[in-house]
């Protein structure tokens, strides 16, 4: 199983909205992906509620059966629609993929 974790720091304002509104929209867009992408086995999205330092505003945890499934997810049209929005509102991104 492949676990895919992404953490984003958002711009204070972008795409006509503030950070909180963009975090909420990111969460909604990402949480709509299960069921649309067959290889996506599990997905959770969290928004920082404790103002941790150093800051990370949104985190994604997802699971895939294989590396090929993760690769297919990355180029899936539904995922790419979300990526279009994310690129507009994000100032920094960290990612970790690991196998268990």
Overview of this structure, please?
It is a single chain. This protein is α+β, with helices and mostly antiparallel strands. Helix content is 35%, strand content 36%. Helix 1 packs antiparallel against helix 3. The chain contains three helices and six strands, in the order βββαββααβ. A four-stranded antiparallel sheet has the order 4-5-1-6. A two-stranded antiparallel ribbon has the order 2-3. The chain has a single domain (2-99), classed as Alpha-Beta Plaits, CATH 3.30.70.100.
Walk me through the topology.
Layout: E1 2-10, E2 13-14, E3 17-18, H1 19-31, E4 42-47, E5 58-64, H2 67-75, H3 77-89, E6 90-99
Antiparallel strand pairs: 1-5, 1-6, 2-3, 4-5
Helix pairs in contact: 1-3
Residue stretches low in confidence (pLDDT < 50, at least 5 long) are none
Oligomer: single chain
Count of domain modules: 1
Order of helices and strands: EEEHEEHHE
Mean pLDDT: 96
Q: Describe the strand arrangement of the main beta sheet, using strand numbers.
A: 4-5-1-6
Distance between the termini: 5 Å
Count of beta strands: 6
